[in-house]
User: What shape does this take?
Amino acid sequence: MNGHERISAALEGKATDTTPIMLHNFMMAAKESGVSMEQYRNDPQIISRSFMASVEKYKFDGILVDIDTVTLAGAVGVPVDFPVEEPARTHQGNLLSLEDVRSLKPANIEGYKYIQIWLEAVRLLKEYFKDEIYIRGNCDQAPFSLASMMRGPQNWMMDLMITEENLINELLDYCTDATSQFITLMAQTGCDMVSNGDSPAGPEMISPDMYEQYALPFEKKIVDIAHQAGLHYALHVCGNTDVILDKMLKTGADAFELDYKTDVQKAFDIYHDKATLIGNIDPSGVLALGTADMVRQKTRELLETYKTSNRFILNAGCAIPPNTPDRNLTAMLDVARDF
Assistant: This one.
């Protein structure tokens, strides 16, 4: 089997010849290619070449094309800071009051420079690898997460506690439209799969009931958009998601990229025959800062837990830091291939 076939099989619950591997390694790929994040984010050719070199070096099966976590926010008017050596970031929202959502013009993300760069990079990679390597076009923020950026995290948490539900839903509808546009545009690149992150929707930020009320319904709408385009869909939520694992299934997502803080045995118990787990090695404490022996041990433990399920793709639990030693990444991959 080639990489494309392995990832495709894992998403369908079918057996593979070896463990499928899809890495969240955009920062590491840029660093190993000798380019700054500023150079990376501004040139689709550099983005695509960085991933091509990474596949050549590590021989993994699927590419997760990512640039940062604030591109959609920038596309809807949130002020963005662009550090030279780090991914772009936001520090404040663009809505002083939640009522300001009623004066927003309809979202139109297609003309935003960094959206187009992201799309072109995915198109170039799909054109190059064709059906040899699986291409996952990440589509940045899910609606709840994007709403948090538009209001600012602290204001958004307060909104959820004290503001009328209609206003909250108006902003979430606006954000759903923006995210849907990105997925629709991404589908046109020829990518094999799409995904979003909804990091602040996890239990470390909001209660399970609030997740079910304000995040899940809008995640489900995004999943439906992906499926209507004929693409598999993956959802990423940061932190310990143990208490919402069953609720996340209701989104209809084909796969869940889970943080290392989530109990992998609980994930297995709920997902092993229903949805594919992507993850979930600790990217910082193990991959970046641990020893090669520690990486091997944690990888074996994860693979042992999932050895009776075909619905598994190895990855870190979140983005792999750029300073990760290549020997540690190689150690993880070697264990997976030999398992």
